[in-house]
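pinning this so it doesn't scroll away 📌
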Amino acid sequence: MGRINGRVAVVTGAARGIGQAIATVFVQEGASVVVADMDVEAGQATVAQLEAQGGQALFVRCDVGHRPDAEDCVAQTLARFGQVDILVNNAGVARDASILKMTDDQWFDVLRVDLYSVFLMTQVCARAMAQRKYGRIVNVSSLAGISGVYGGSNYSAAKAGILGFAKSASRELARHGVLVNSVIPGAVDTDILRGLPESVRQEKCKAILAGRPADPLEIARVVLFLASEDASYVNGQAIVCDGGRADKL
């Protein structure tokens, strides 16, 4: 029996990268998964992969920073599976620019998708979870939310905001049986990292004691822990998954 057997999980930004890895691990551990993403083609392909592994999955096209979409996502989840047990707030975008040149649109686009969506999806899912007195919410933040990142003040602000929000949410929702935790990845081997110049990738790896970026599955396994009963006494915490950053030692 899997570690989250019989649970129903909503994973945002699950069409690729870390989100797809989380959805894959969840299905392997017995959960039904809702793939919430804006990319219809990639999202449907992910669902097909999950079903090919014997899992139950549903794709919902969802702009997680838009309330009607968030509410529709939960409605479709309840209609298909009857419950929401786990939410993983993973969706995110980047719109890099220096502070001196950043536009309002660049600032607010990132805050809407990377931070407001965490509040929004938490609110709509927690309402359903509270009715059953059970829920696990895991937020995917970033090392950028702790250390900052050059040219990404909007992204860093959003990822830092996630950590503060999660602390507050853990206090408010505990009495409803809902636990809220976060993971803080460092460099991860995703399309975004692969799209950087080789020299930049090598420089990032030099600052990691492991000497390499994380595989998305390595992040997914930490998320699985927080979503499972193995973490039944863990609430309001943030686990750093950065391979050991040499520049912090």
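📌 and the second one:
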Amino acid sequence: MARADRELQPPVADHSRTARVWETPDTFLTPESVLYDPVRDVVYVTNFDARWSETTEFTGYISRLNLDGAIEELRWVTNLNAPTGMSIHGDRLWVVERGNLTEIDPDRGELLRRYPISGSEFLNDIAIDSAGNIYLSDTSPSSLSGSRIYRFKDGVSELWVDSEQISMANGLYIHGDKLLVGNSGDGFLKAVGLGDKHITDIACFGGGVLDGIRVDNHGSYLVSHWKGQVYAVSDSGRVVEVLDTMAAGMNSADFEYIPDRNLLIIPTFLGNKVAAYRLTEQ
């Protein structure tokens, strides 16, 4: 699906493919990311707290929802420093905080350890490959011309990609032998080879914050734009807007997609809600 050219194919809208299933009350504290845990059949929500920089206290936390949208535990893991992306590998939940990668026991809801990521400015999303390598995007707002992707394994982090082709990297997702990157600096979804680090453009969204990435049942990429849209990208690079939450005054941050339910679960950030939508077949 990777494209060698940088041709812009303007997105088209087809909202008929999505229908809202449920929506929580606005009881969250700036929900930034959601993650489904199939082993425990629960959805985790990071509460970023948009005012995190105004205090020295760690006011962020993780909530637990069931798949019907009921809140099982609002403040499940607390005292987190503006948590963002999450991923599960083995029996551990990994969470991104400011300057740290944090390891959590999902059975006990216990924070086990924080691993500082030296040199990072604003760690954002996380993806884990089959070998257990953990990739972290550093949005690095002070450097618009380039940002970094770190790799972490066995307690050690390294700078993995530092390239002008990667700028304000946000959303990450492992797909086959590639790391997909929501490159907010130029508005492109990109693929980075896990072996050779070769960077290829996939599709352009015309700018903005590319927050979440998933793959649907047909192999199309699903990408969220923080402002309030979710897009589907076909094999040809055609971009279709399948959801727009802006009219409801909600963002569309780092979402989850559950393939066997065709379910999109959207953290609405400043909307302080989590909403679920059914994604129908093309």
